[in-house]
Design a protein that fits this description.
Largest sheet: none
Number of strands: 0
Structural class: mainly alpha
Shape: elongated
Number of domains: 1
Strand content: under 5%
Radius of gyration: 26 Å
Length: 197
């Protein structure tokens, strides 16, 4: 009969460890499934909110984008009148685009999908503003028709008669980003991996 020397053979080599019991494994799997549904539901709720904004301007989402729009006018002021006026719409798009890039670099696809949906909303807001250049029906800060950014910009570019066409194309970009974000977000929600992993 062979005798095992516990000094040369550590005891753990001869022990059978059960890291998780079947019940614990089922519990972990259930929690994981629940979290998947929570993530998907959160994404769908935000997507529905963005879609409502894209169909009919929603005040809260519009207000958040307006903050970036007005900040853009100030930030681009040193670059001349044209860039100062364009800077509102430009910065309104740049902020959500920055967060899409940031989360993508961090390999957090789920968070990037949320930022992309916000970017889609921003494109929609700019599209609606462009298409209103001649009609002037949107309420503006200060209430003066002369404050309409895209009336000024399209006159400067001699493209005022194309306002609705340009707006249509910008809206199509927004909708493309929306559906791509929703599809990618659904995938990342279901197959979520922590950025740290």
């Amino acid at each position: 009969m062979e005798v095992v020397d516990s000094q040369t053979h550590p005891p753990h080599l001869f022990s059978v460890y059960s890291h998780t019991s079947p019940a614990a494994g089922d519990s972990v799997a259930h929690a994981s499934t629940v979290m998947r549904f929570v993530r998907v539901t959160a994404l769908l709720i935000f997507a529905f909110w963005v879609w409502r904004y894209m169909r009919d301007t929603e005040p809260l989402l519009h207000g958040s984008l307006l903050i970036f729009h007005e900040a853009g006018h100030v930030l681009f002021m040193p670059f001349g009148e044209f860039m100062m006026v364009l800077g509102g719409s430009l910065f309104q798009l740049m902020v959500p685009a920055f967060f899409v890039a940031l989360f993508a670099i961090r390999r957090d696809g789920y968070a990037a999908a949320f930022a992309s949906l916000y970017l889609a909303a921003s494109f929609a807001g700019v599209a609606i503003y462009i298409a209103d250049a001649r009609a002037g029906e949107l309420p503006l800060l200060g209430g003066e028709r002369s404050n309409h950014d895209w009336t000024f910009l399209l006159i400067e570019m001699e493209m005022l008669d194309q306002d609705t066409t340009i707006g249509w194309y910008v809206m199509r970009v927004g909708k493309l980003i929306f559906w791509a974000s929703l599809a990618a977000g659904g995938y990342f929600a279901w197959n979520y991996r922590s950025p740290a992993a």
